Structure formats: structure tokens, C-alpha cells
Amino acid sequence: MSGIVGYIGWQNAIPILIDTLKRLEYRGYDSTGIAVIKDSSLGIRKRVGNIDVLKESLYNEPLNGMNGIGHTRWATHGKPTEENAHPHIAGKIAIVHNGIIENYLSLKESLLKEGRKFLSDTDTEVIAHLIDKNFTGNLENAVQKTLKEISGTYAIVAISPADPEKIVIARNENPIVIGLGRGEFFIASDASAILSYVKDIIFLDDGEIAVIKKEGVQVYDKNNRQVEKNIRRLGLNPILMEKGGYKHFILKEIFEQPRAIWDTVRGRVSGGDIIFEDFKLTDLDIKNIKKVFITGCGTSWHAGLIGKFMIEGISRIPVEVDISSELRYRNPIINSDTLIIAISESGETVDTIAAMRNGKKNGAKTVSICNTIESSLSRESGSTINIHAGPEISVASTKTFTSSLSALYILSVYLAKLKGVINDNETAGLINDIVAVMGKIEDVMGLEEEIEGLSKMFYEKKGFLYLGRGINYPVALEGAMKMKELSYIYAEGYPGGEMKHGPIALIDEHTPVIILAPKNSLYEKSLIDIEEVKARNGVVIVFATEGDTEVMKRARHVLYVPHASEYLFPIIMSIPLQFLAYYVALRRGLNVDRPRNLAKSVTVE
Ligand code: G6P
């Protein structure tokens, strides 16, 4: 995994590489490096740590050149050391790579036998050696030849002082884009990294290779035939990628939720009806859907678990939810009557793309719910519902979670309507419910101060338990995950009724137990959970519906959130749990935007 960048043009490449790498830091940040060509020689700098460490080293000892590449790493093969950091150099070649080369061990063995010396434990160094070995004066030919020898996933950017006027890039399953400037070109794993420099973007497809010179770009397919690429004009606003006065991106993104949810819903509901122009299935296709599979990873999987309650409850279609890395390797019963819903903020998560592709191969209809326009997932799925939440820079997802829930909700209502499960009045009622929730989200933001206060009491705890029932069980999972990701405190999410079958053993006076107890069909059951925890001296923190006086009699810490319909309560409930994880992590002095070991977009297995 990792973020990769490149620049060729008339400016010094270094500040551009540093700036664009910084914008890709969400893809990994354990070590970084750059290489530039100047006067037919290569300047290289690598550092363990994030981009700021590399930047400082370049400030103390500058490098320059107008053609360069850079990398921010999330370790797969080999520890985060300077030797393992990219770029990797072999002879006259420098490369950066995102992905995994599956046959690297056998290739490395042969290269070692030929007398080549390896300096790192990475799979990437093999590619550098092969390109160097295949190089006879023309970089793209050497890259083309090398691609035939390697198997796996990759986005590669290569330069050579022996063919200095170009950058060569290639893609197989890992994203890479080219930004078109005037006499200069920008390369990055993700368009958002370069959008403050350019608006026009070329997205490379699998099997393609591009040769980028100051004069222009040429793209070739795997048979070396030239390809005419579409140029996409991106409408992303770079201002959205700044902190805008907030202390951290994650806090800004938590506060952006009213706007983000509105942008997901707006344009898809009107006059009590749903207009789903981006959903390309015909009415007949929808009537024929007999089964839905929802797939995703991490937070997107949690959104899918909640989506199951929405689709089964509202549209009455059976739903299975599967983690993508599981779904892709099992043999589920999927056919042309199946709809696969793949959820991914980035649209680049390799397991989610693979799970969706498998479904497609079996004839299923596919729809993705994505935040990144033109992502690999959205380009490959039959339809895409863009959630329009805007760039999410913090590694831990917040606004894209609640926006995905909103998209799943309106999709459920849409499917229900077209399947004839609900009539016009019911459709209008369900739409009113989400419009009402949008009005209440601002109120939820008012809980920030109270939760900050609460975090003082709990930030030194060793573990948290989160309990929820029914549709709120996945909310508990997501709340616990936010706590783990941000604060590094062990937290477990569990169905309230199942607690007595194991986690109850963890409860004592040191264990905060967060119980989600909204006034819904399972409310009475949640009261039992509260009592069972209290009976074991657990510290109970209850999130309840405004006006619920009963719960106050039972628990010392109660936080009230506004009422919402059963299907929409998860949207409201998730926000205070995000605040709690944020403030606990902040008190522990942690990097809330870039927690250790994580990456925002996981493009490797
Ligand atoms: C990584 C991130 C998570 C995210 C997951 C899925 O693990 O750290 O926050 O939920 O990937 O990402 P996606 O882009 O597919 O939603």
C-alpha cells in the first residue's frame, strides 16, 4: 500500500513532491522518500517517519531537479526502515511502487544468482532490478518487458538518469492518475493530491503504461498499442481539504456531518419522492432482485451491517452482509437475481473491489456507494451512488460513515417503492423521516462539550465495552472501532443480549460500558443490559432518547440524543461516539488524524 507521486515540468520538483505526498499521507506514513534527476544524475533522500521528517532533512540539505518521484509508505514487506523505504534504486533506475508483487521471492532468487545485490526486504526492489536488467536505453521498453515477468498488484512510477526526459508509470489494480498542466505533469495515487495544481486528469486503467514527458503524455495498453484516454475535469474544491480553523481534520469532519448528509440526500429526494438518476438498474431489474449482498471493510462494513436492517425492514429483500476479504474467498450463491452493494469511502480498497468483481462474474447486478468520484470501484460497478461527503482526510472515517448510512436509507426506500412494497404515502413518510433527522443533527453537535467532560473520567481506562441491540449493535461496533483506532484503548462492541455469554466476565468497577438505549422496539431489553452491568459494578454510560426519564433512574451517566426513526437512529447515535473517541485520544496526547499503523485506503491484501 502507500501513496506515490511524480512530477515532470519546469519547476523544482521537490516542493511539489513534498506537498503532494503530504496530501497522500493518509495512505501510510511510516517512512517516506523521494528521488530526482538533475544533470543526468540521481538525488535520493529517504527517512523513517512521516513527510515532515523528510521535509526537514531536505531543508537542511536541499536537493533539486525538475523530474522526480516520491513515496509515503505503509509497510507490507519489510519493517519501516530507511533501507525499505522507497524509492528503490537498481543501477540506473529509481522506482516507487504501491501494491504487492506476488512472485518476488522466486524473481529475487534468480536475480541474486545473477549477482545482483539487494539492499532491502521489499518486493519492490525486485521490480527496480528487473527494469535495470531490461534497460537498453529506453525506459518504457524496459518497464513493458518487466511487467510481463511480475505478477501481483501495482502502481509503479519509474525514472532513469540514463533516459532522463521522462517518467514512466504503469498500473495493475492499484490506482494512479496523471494531472495535466501546461508543460508540466503531476502523478499521484489519488486525484485529490494534485487538485490544487490541475483540474484535468487522466485515470490509468489496469494493464496500461504511460510515458510522460514535458511535451505530453502517451498511454499504451499491455499489447503496446497506443490508447486514446478521456480527460476528466474534476470539480473538487481544494479548500475542502484544509482544516478550516479546526484543530484537527477529524473534528472538522465530525462537524461537517450535517452538510455531508444533506449533500448525500439532496438531489435524490424531491416532493415526497425519490429520484435516483445514478442508479442505472431498470425497474424490471429491481423487481427481479431476490437477494442483496452488502460488502465492505472496516467502517464501510459496519455501514453495511446497518444497511441490512434498512433494506430487509423497508424493502423486504433478504440481505447478507460480508466483510469483503471473506466474501471474495468464499463461494456464495450469487446469480443474476442478486444485487451486490459494495461500500467504500475510497473506492480503492482491494478486497472490496475483488468481492464486487466476483459477484459481477456470477452475473450479479452491482452498485457501489463511494465518496471518491472516479474511483476504481465506482468505475467498475454497474452503478455508483456518490455520497458527496467531500474529501475525508482523517484516517478514521466519520462523515463518510453517516453519509453512507443516508445513502443506504434512501436506496432502501427506492427499492421498496419500485418493488411495490410501500405506497406513495409510505414513501413520503420515510423521506420525511430523513429530512427530520437532518434538522436534528446540528443539535447532536451540541453534545461536544458534555462528552469532552466525560472523556476526563475515562481516558485512562484500559478497556471499553459498547453494547447495542438490533440496528444499534453495528453502531456499537463502529463506536468501539473509533475508540480503538483513535485512542489505542481496547474496545469491544457486542450485541446487548449476547453480553452475558462472554464479555460479562470483563465487567468490573474499572470497565466503562457504553450502552445504546434509544426508545425503540428493543428499549426494554436495553434496560436489562443496564441492570446486568450495574449488578457487576460496571461503570454504565447510557446514550438515550431525549425525554427518557426512566433511564436516568438507572444510570449515573446519561447522554441524551434527539429522537429519530428506528432506521435512522444510527446516524444520530454515531456522532457522540465519534466525539468520545476523539476526546479520549486527545487527552492521551495521540495523533488523532493519523493513528499509528493505520492507513485510510488499503490497496493491498
Ligand atoms: C481502512 C481505514 C478504515 C476504513 C477501511 C475501508 O482500514 O483505516 O477507516 O473503514 O479502510 O475503507 P474504504 O475506503 O473501503 O471505506
Description of the molecule:
With 605 residues, the protein is an alpha/beta fold. The protein folds into three domains: 3-240, 4-Layer Sandwich (Glutamine Phosphoribosylpyrophosphate, subunit 1, domain 1); 244-422, Rossmann fold; 446-587, 3-Layer(aba) Sandwich (Rossmann fold), CATH 3.40.50.10490. Helices cover 36% and strands 24% of the residues. The chain is built from 19 helices and 27 strands. The strands form five sheets. The chain has an eight-stranded antiparallel sheet, with helices on one face. The model has no long low-confidence stretch (mean pLDDT 93). The structure holds 6-O-phosphono-alpha-D-glucopyranose (G6P). 6-O-phosphono-alpha-D-glucopyranose binds next to helix 9.
DSSP strand count: 27
Cα distance, first to last residue?
9 Å
Rough outline: globular
Largest sheet: 8 strands, antiparallel
Counting helices, strands and paired strands, the structural category is alpha/beta
**Domains (count):** 3
Do you know the CATH topology of the largest domain?
A: Glutamine Phosphoribosylpyrophosphate, subunit 1, domain 1
Distinct helical segment count: 19
CATH superfamily of the largest domain: Aminohydrolase, N-terminal nucleophile (Ntn) domain
Biggest β-sheet: strands ordered side by side in the sheet: 3-2-4-1-10-9-11-15
Please give the radius of gyration in angstroms.
25 Å
CATH class of the largest domain reads: Alpha Beta
Bound molecules: 6-O-phosphono-alpha-D-glucopyranose
**Beta-strand fraction estimate:** 15-25%
Q: Which stretches are poorly predicted, pLDDT < 50 over at least 5 residues? A: none
